[in-house]
Amino acid sequence: MIIVRNLSKSFPPDSRVLQRLSFQADEGELVTLLGASGSGKTTLFRCLMLQEKWDEGQYIYEGNDITKAGFSEKLKLRKQWAYLEEKPKLNPKKSALKNVLSALLFRKSWVRFLTGTVSEDDHLEAMDYLDRVGLLDKAHEPVEKLSGGEKQRVAVCKAMIKGARVIFADEPVSGLDPEAASRVMEDLQSICRKHKLLVFCSLHQIELAEKYGSRIWGLSGGKLVIDIAGRRLTQREKELIF
Ligand SMILES: Nc1ncnc2c1ncn2[C@@H]1O[C@H](COP(=O)(O)OP(=O)(O)OP(=O)(O)O)[C@@H](O)[C@H]1O
Q1: Ligand 1: which of 10, 34, 42, 52 to mutate, judged by most atoms within 8 Å of the beta carbon?
Q2: Where does the ABC transporter domain lie (predicted)?
Q3: Cα separation of 99 and 83, whole Å?
Q4: Which entry of 20, 39, 93, 239 is 20 to 30 Å from 128 by CA?
């Protein structure tokens, strides 16, 4: 699904963050990305979402070379990609349902997006997604009254309903208690498997990366120092990353 060859990224004047990264990642994979603070996890995601200019490298997405994608191609691609942040961008005053519906309208026509016209089918689809992440009973609650984990699950719903094929989850469980963090990771794992999405998830917690990643990457010194199938990391592997 994604093939990257020799991706390098630096910031002026001389901060070389990513150095000649090469990898392939496919649908149905949940890639957990570990790395110390400042190792370049967010920068890698931003490069893969074409929000940062690459210094060098080649980017193949679904068989097409998108290294030099123009503005309109980038817009189309961005509809297939979703970014989940530590603090999800949601409208706090609106209900969970309305937040999810706003992503559904994004997928439909511009007229409906601008007028906010919602059909009964849209409504049912949004409720169905909320049900899948166990939030049916909170559908009408304003988002500001939801817990951190529930907010993150609304954001996961938005990504799914938008029709995202690749999800970049950037430390989505930071600040959540262990139970809420596990629930968010279970949702990501489940949508990844059921909908054959490609999910990249950066984490600071090694145990979560080991438990939920079908693949584990470790980023250090601008390089992918670990790229293995999901399993317990050895002490040596941990030392390579941190
Ligand atoms: N726009 C920018 N301009 C200059 N330097 C930047 C910019 N964005 C990131 N950096 C630098 O790139 C390095 C990697 O940052 P990045 O945010 O990707 O790390 P991270 O692994 O996501 O960190 P954290 O775990 O703390 O979120 C840092 O040294 C950061 O200061």
Answers
A1: 42
A2: 2-241
A3: 15
A4: 93
Q: Tell me, rounded to whole angstroms, the distance of Cα 28 from its chain centroid.
A: 13
Per-domain residue ranges for the chain? 1-80+166-242, 85-164
Instruction: Establish whether residue 13 lines the binding site of ligand 1, counting it when its CB lies within 6 angstroms of any ligand atom.
Output: no
pTM assigned to the model: 0.93
How many whole angstroms separate alpha carbon 111 and alpha carbon 152? 28
1-80+166-242: CATH topology is Rossmann fold (3.40.50)
Edge-to-edge, what's the strand order for the sheet holding 215-220?
Answer: 81-84, 166-170, 198-203, 30-35, 215-220, 223-229
Q: Do the Cβ atoms of 176 and 150 come closer than 8 Å?
A: no
Tell me the per-residue pLDDT of 26-77, one tens digit each, with 9 for 90 and over: 999 999 999 999 999 999 999 999 999 999 999 999 999 999 999 999 988 9
What token pair was written down for 169?
A: 């989850």
Which amino acid residue places its CA nearest to atom 31 of ligand 1? 38
- Residue 212 makes CB contacts below 8 A (sequence gap 6+) with 30, 32, 185, 186, 188, 189, 201, 230
Instruction: Identify the CA nearest to 224 among candidates 62, 17, 61, 86.
Output: 17
**HSE on the CB side for 135, CA within 13 Å?**
32
Query: Three-class SS of residue 74?
Result: helix
